[in-house]
Amino acid sequence: MSPLVSQDLVVVGAGIVGASVAYHAARAGASVTLVDAGRPGAGVTADSFAWIGASGVLEGPAGGLRATATAEYHRLGAELPGLPVNWSGSLRWPREGSAPTAGIGQTIVDAATVATLEPAVRQPPEWALWAPGDGSVDSVGMTEGLVAGARTHGARVHLDTPVTGVRRDAAGRIAGVETAAGPLSGTTVVLAAGVATAALGASVGVRVPVEPSPSPLFRLSAPAGLVRTLVNTEDFDLRQVAPDRLIAAADSPERTLAAVRSTFRGAGSVELLSTSIGVRPMPADGEPIIGPVAEVPGLYVAVMHAAVTLAAAVGRLVARELVDGTVEPALSGCRPDRF
């Protein structure tokens, strides 16, 4: 892959990935325009469970990215103080009878330790996997912080501005994007628009194999301090996001509510407040699609599942490739030309 160096970028999509690319590129000295059809993080980013973890089994082309996820968020926190990250650690306990296997960053803990970490659990499991380095973010607040950071470094931000297509010059190189408010110029366009990336790529004859994948998220009322860590069981992913609020990622609101009430003491008053269905961008092979599109000089794609987890790392690495011309080995298995 030839390095694609640019000092004039248009980043399409102000979800957490696009915001991270815009921030890191602007911080590196590029001229950056960030454009989105809505507000920062208002799309699928807002409906993410937003678990940050480098623990467990790290396989596949994006394994290296996942391994650095928490470290990259700690770096971002140092660069942009006040970002909404909660380093609570995570507890996982699978179905009864499953053999415990600890991955990177995980420790097998007994029932007494589970009871210490999560005092409200009615029947602590015989064992669980404890990952003290895991955390979670307020995904919209994080995205807003990245956009503000990009602006501080000179980025121009166009919100509520739908992009209708990608522009090319007479030689076939990227020239910017068309929007409902008129054209925006740039020698490189980064498509980080989630499921909309496929249609935008198609506007210049590029196939980006990304499909929408529904992602239910339930918001629940809760007593203060009911859940202290990020809890993963066969029934739900669950965390406390405010003194009186939980969020859960699971399949059924009814089953989730019943499971929360039966798992935790003092949860009898927990009620379902709302349900939202996020539309995750799911690449055809489940792995991130990140890199330049060879047949359209100046076009770069950054679309993935687990976008919140990977955003800090991906933003920095994409910016290095585009602004500095560095070919990043951690992205080698994620290139668009693998399809």
Describe this structure in words.
This protein folds into two domains: 8-81 and 138-209 and 284-338, FAD/NAD(P)-binding domain (3-Layer(bba) Sandwich); 90-132 and 213-280, D-Amino Acid Oxidase, subunit A, domain 2 (D-Amino Acid Oxidase, Chain A, domain 2, 2-Layer Sandwich), CATH 3.30.9.10. The chain is built from eight helices and 20 strands. The chain has helices at 16-27, 63-67, 69-79, 111-117, 139-152, 197-202, 253-263, 307-324, and strands at 8-12, 31-35, 51-52, 85-86, 90-92, 107-110, 127-131, 135-137, 156-158, 163-168, 174-179, 182-185, 188-191, 210-221, 230-232, 237-242, 245-249, 272-283, 289-292, 299-303. The model has no long low-confidence stretch (mean pLDDT 94).
Summarize this structure briefly.
The protein has 339 residues and is of the alpha+beta class. It contains eight helices and 20 strands.
Q: Uncertain regions: pLDDT < 50 for 5+ in a row?
A: none
Question: What is the CATH topology descriptor of the largest domain?
Answer: FAD/NAD(P)-binding domain
CATH superfamily of the largest domain: FAD/NAD(P)-binding domain
Element order: H for helix, E for strand? EHEEHHEEEHEEHEEEEEHEEEEHEEEH
Task: Provide mean pLDDT, rounded.
Answer: 94
Strand content: 25-35%
Total domain count = 2
- N/C terminus separation: 15 Å
Q: What is the spatial order of strands in the main beta sheet?
A: 6-7-5-15-16-17-14-18
- Tally of helical runs: 8
Largest sheet: 8 strands, mixed
What portion of residues is helical? Answer: 10-25%
CATH class of the largest domain: Alpha Beta
Indicate the structural class.
alpha+beta
Describe the global form: elongated
How many strands? Answer: 20
State the CATH architecture of the largest domain.
Answer: 3-Layer(bba) Sandwich
| Rg, Cα atoms, Å | 21 Å
InterPro entries: FAD-dep_OxRdtase, FAD/NAD-bd_sf
Protein name: FAD dependent oxidoreductase domain-containing protein
Domain FAD dependent oxidoreductase: 8-320
Keywords: Oxidoreductase
